Amino acid sequence: MKQKKIVVIGNGMVGYKFCEKITSKSSDFSIIIFGEEPRRAYDRVHLSEYFNGKSADDLSLCKEDWYSEKEITLYLNDPVKEIDRTGKTIHSSKGLTLEYDYLIIATGSAPFVPDIPGIDKEGVFVYRTIEDLDLIKNYALNAKTGAVLGGGLLGLEAAKALIDLNLSETNVIEFAPRLMPRQIDAAGSGMLQNKLSALGLNIYTNKGTSSIEGADRISALKFNDGSELKTDMLVISAGIRPRDELARLSGIEVGTRGGIIVNEYMQTSDPSVFAIGECALFDHNIYGLIAPGYEMAEVAAAKLCNDTKTFKGFDMSTKLKLIGVDVASFGDPFTTEPDARTILFEDSHKGIYKRINISNDGKHLLGGILIGEAEAYNMLLQTVNNKILLPPNPEDLILGSRGGSAATENAGLAGLPDEALICSCEGISKGSICNAVTEQHCESIDAIKSCTKAGTGCGGCIPMVKDLMLHTMKQNGKYVRNVICEHFHLSRQELYDLIKIHNLKGYEQVLDNLGKGDGCEVCKPLVSSLLASLWNDMILKKGNDTAQDSNDRFLANIQKGGTYSVVPRIPGGEITPEKLTIIGQVAEKYGLYTKITGGQRIDMFGAHLSDLPLIWKELIDAGFESGHAYGKALRTVKSCVGSTWCRFGLHDSVSYAIRIEERYRGLRAPHKLKSAVSGCIRECAEAQSKDFGIIATEKGWNLYVCGNGGSKPQHALLLATDVDSDTCIKYIDRFLMFYIRTADPLTRTAPWLNKMEGGMEYLRNVVVNDSLGMAAQWELEMQALVDSYQCEWKTAIEDPEIRKRFNHFVNAPEEKDPSVRFDEMRGQKKAADWTLA
Amino acid sequence: MKCGARKKQQTGHWLNPKIEIMIEITTNWFAACRVEDAVENGGVCVKCGDEQIALFYFTRRNEWYATQNLCPHRQQMALSRGMIGSAGEDPKIACPFHKKTFSLSTGECLSGDECAIQTYPVKVEDGMVYIGFA
Ligand code: SRM
Ligand SMILES: Cc1cc2nc3c(=O)[nH]c(=O)nc-3n(C[C@H](O)[C@H](O)[C@H](O)COP(=O)(O)OP(=O)(O)OC[C@H]3O[C@@H](n4cnc5c(N)ncnc54)[C@H](O)[C@@H]3O)c2cc1C
Ligand code: SF4
Ligand code: FES
């Protein structure tokens, strides 16, 4: 017989966490929990991911049967409407009356909705629950422009969501003179505003909204300064209000500006009633973050089990997620002289702003702000929280340069005390993570998550947890392996060597010899890429075809709607008028959308699967070949016009680009490869943003390597200076073979170099000075690949067995996929939008 | 996300001992293609009236599976062009678009979504592959 009854009001993140904590501490209680929302507790912190493909189920904090397993009674869709403290009972909306010994109020908060005329018009939303997001998503289907009222942490997240919903214009309206006024300073806000504008957000600060216009539905916002902004929808994110109404009604003490007053044990003015999470007011503070909420759940559960943990307040360090700009604020971000000294770093070119505040004696870090680059956030937060002594030049903390930084970061990890809090959501220390690795053999992030719960809250600590795990494994003398998947307990590099040693030629053969099970979408493309890098066989050879990634299997990129794109190779970007005409004719004949790509060639989109061989036949007959736009292979070698026409050109960059593109065309690698050749240092071909890039000098060529664009652009670094054309190619051969052999799957050259111990110095030694003694072998291997090149499309159209695979229906080869739909735009076709269920 | 999930249905294939029960409730066998037209360790798309069915020949396990061709995630007619494999013992298919994976034996989505795909029994007789409809 259970002794005491606990009723929990609110099945949100913190209410759920309380149940988890109390059931793990004791089985002396019978627990009943009431939720107002229709579903079990879910991860509100990652709510926005609901727009990026996560389902409500993905967001759930537990499995459906978790409550019954823990013998907790759950009432959903049934808000508690009254607390009777004298009778120690609660009444629910559906008419239940239950007694309690202890009551836990975890009702969270509600978005604050300012009292603006017109606020109840259609098209005005808040952003807190899954239902809110459903409403927004549906409404956005018929909206072109949107606005968010409030430029704080949540407002910016909501704005990003509107952009992702394909609104053509998104505006953010902030009453204060700057964005995120509670977290970052004026200079930081300015920098953030510039970056967000570049992402396409229109930002208005200093704007008080006076009314919302429109007949039934919103059409515009009117501001105090008389100006107006047209908008089809509005999301309000103007702050939160603790949901203290139940407590207030039952005479429990609440703060003057809202919030249920609690002591350090989370008890309200009635000792048998507790309040936790965003509804609780501790020391005049409402904590609108998950980590302090979880800590409150722990403290309340401990108190009920007669433990004497207390809540001591919580720091409000945060990192903005999702928006595409790194923003972090930690410790005391604002403190200034005379209480502290401040170090600032500002790079308005790259949009980076960093500020750290250090104690007057220079020993401790007090807090700071990071905009544009926040990789150091976790480490800096640790330095504040653990009062770690600062190095003699604390500016290194924010200026740490590429190459050297890995070493300092690891030294930092080792230097953290065991009790350093790594996951503040779940309250997990460095010591428990290291223990899990050493004693419970957790050797993957998933294992650590399920063993310690670290990283299961906001997820911000995961990079650090991973570093700690690897660091501890290395310390334990473990060889740290990056295994591929459940079918291959090998790293990519090991697999490469084994396939070569055993001379394996097909996917099934590799799986039989070196793996187990039946393979999957992770190891199949990876093995296929290795086989191609090693032997350069036609990738669609029988048996290997179905182990190729979809794009490789059909030698074309699949597009929205199920059609494909066609990209013929145009080496160096040079093309004759005759060939341009052919492309035009083919595109017209097969009804394709045409576009000049960012890689100096022409992409034709919207090809039906069964048209692909016909299209390629015509292109190949006219002298074109595959551009490998679908493969993890060499893409383009861009060129500038160079000395043949340009008055500054030092050498013929076009001829050299063509020579390079023809040499490495079709070369399969861990990730795609791009290159460029510029005729002089004006760099019109952007060679320094490529995996390998070449720039003409008075005396020869400068070779740069390991640059890339993408989401984390990085400039290439100089590998060799003033080399002649043949030497340059030799170096590229060696560089590429070294990369192909040793890089992790899907790792571009830049991150590959970033992880290399010794960095550029080491790479230069290997490539230029042949420190591994591999140069001759690599040059031979590369030559073998160059010699065995064949145009895959040519082989494909000549082989009837392969051609057959390009029919949509196996039993109606002449019919095209009837589900393909196009729309029209500017006189060409476009893929119809995703239809969402 | 609810993604247009159709009712789940027990699947069967020709080596499955449960096949006899299946045959009883299956009234209509559709002749899809010849064994040699199917792709080894991969899928083909079969037109059955207005429906598109993805047919998989899991040569490695000597098993056949059939499912709807429509991927419920973004409503793409794509599953036949996906990659087959296994998760533990369970045979699965990964959609080529966003690599959501589905169990070939139950149709259940293995990538955590709430959407399942419909599966159909398959039998092979005299070199001909048949898909069964209830
Ligand atoms: C067509 C094109 C955009 C355009 O209209 O200009 C394009 C289109 C695609 N890019 Fe790109 N990228 C194109 C130039 C670029 C560039 C610019 C450049 O090459 O100078 C970049 C940045 C430079 C770089 O790669 O370092 C670029 C960075 C990416 C990335 C990010 C790579 C990274 O390292 O993070 C991806 C994703 C990936 O490869 O995994 C990507 C992936 C894609 C894919 C293949 C996505 C997909 O799987 O469907 C797009 C479909 C192409 C197709 O044909 O169906 N695309 N993409 C450009 C084709 C160039 C060409 O002729 O081959
Ligand atoms: C979009 C978004 C992004 C966020 N991002 C972050 C972030 O990056 N980092 C971070 O730390 N925090 C973030 N937060 C804040 C975080 O989600 C909250 O701090 C956390 O959810 C608070 O938990 P809670 O249980 O107190 O409140 P909630 O999760 O709101 O739960 C309260 C529950 O109680 C229910 N309830 C209310 N009244 C009653 C009643 N009378 N009877 C029954 N049930 C009732 C409510 O319906 C609700 O389900 C974010 C929040 C949002 C909305
Ligand atoms: S940036 Fe590249 S991958 Fe992204 S939408 Fe444009 S073409 Fe596609
Ligand atoms: S459409 Fe299939 S996974 Fe997205």
Automatic annotation (TrEMBL), chain A:
Pathway noted in the entry: Nitrogen metabolism; nitrate reduction (assimilation)
Q: Which residues form the FAD/NAD(P)-binding domain?
A: 5-299
The NADH-rubredoxin oxidoreductase C-terminal domain covers which part of the protein? 317-388
Q: List the SUPFAM superfamilies.
A: FAD/NAD(P)-binding domain (SSF51905), Nitrite and sulphite reductase 4Fe-4S domain-like (SSF56014), Nitrite/Sulfite reductase N-terminal domain-like (SSF55124)
Which prosthetic group or cofactor does it need? [4Fe-4S] cluster; FAD; [2Fe-2S] cluster; siroheme
List of residues binding siroheme: C684
Keywords, sorted A to Z:
2Fe-2S, 4Fe-4S, FAD, Flavoprotein, Heme, Iron, Iron-sulfur, Metal-binding, Nitrate assimilation, Oxidoreductase
The cross-references to PROSITE patterns, in alphabetical order and at most eight, read: NIR_SIR
For the keyword Iron, the answer is yes
**Segments forming domain Nitrite/Sulfite reductase ferredoxin-like:** 559-620
| Domain Nitrite/sulphite reductase 4Fe-4S intervals | 631-767
- Where [4Fe-4S] cluster binds, per the record, is at C640, C646, C680, C684
GO biological process assignments: energy derivation by oxidation of organic compounds; nitrate assimilation
Subunit field text: Homodimer which associates with NirD.
Per its record, how is this protein called by name? Answer: Nitrite reductase (NADH) large subunit
Q: Which organism is it from?
A: Pedobacter steynii
Q: What is the taxonomic lineage of the source species?
A: Bacteria, Pseudomonadati, Bacteroidota, Sphingobacteriia, Sphingobacteriales
From TrEMBL, chain B:
Is Cell cycle one of the keywords?
no
Task: Fetch the NCBIfam families from UniProt.
Answer: nirD_assim_sml
Q: Its Gene Ontology molecular function terms?
A: 2 iron, 2 sulfur cluster binding; metal ion binding; nitrite reductase [NAD(P)H] activity
Segments spanning the bilayer are none
Q: What Gene Ontology biological process does one annotation of this record name?
A: nitrate assimilation
User: What's the name of the protein?
Assistant: Nitrite reductase (NADH) small subunit
Origin organism lineage: Bacteria, Pseudomonadati, Bacteroidota, Sphingobacteriia, Sphingobacteriales
Q: Which InterPro entries match?
A: NasD-like, Rieske-like_NirD, Rieske_2Fe-2S, Rieske_2Fe-2S_sf
Keyword tags: 2Fe-2S, Heme, Iron, Iron-sulfur, Metal-binding, Nitrate assimilation, Oxidoreductase
According to the entry, every stretch annotated as the Rieske domain falls at 30-131
Q: Which domain of life is it from?
A: Bacteria
